[in-house]
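Methods, example record. To illustrate the input and output format used throughout this study, we show the complete record for U6 snRNA-associated Sm-like protein LSm8. The sequence lines were provided to the predictor; the line carrying structure tokens was produced by it.
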Amino acid sequence: MTSILQPSIDQRIAVVTNDGRLFVGTLRGFDQTTNVILQDASERVYSQDQGVEEIQLGLYVVRGDNIAIIGEIDDVIDSEIDHTTIRAAPLKPVVH
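The corresponding predicted structure is encoded as:
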């Protein structure tokens, strides 16, 4: 997994955790257990009643054993989306 992340260093990524949270930030580093370091990180909190709330976190570490998905973000497309108009149910936790 870590060799797959190497090209994403200094790129904006999204991390979905096992408990259903979504973090977005610039990948600054990772280790052999897929712990990731995000710079300028934020958490996007989804709600069915109101738009996406974006909580600024700054420098943030996500433990590898809590990561479900890591994906690249297209900055151009992401900047064109008005997240305040998006309504969605929060993700459910991953059940093993």
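Annotations derived from this record:
Residues 2-85 form a domain with the SH3 type barrels. fold (CATH 2.30.30.100).
Residues 75-80 form the longest helix (6 residues).
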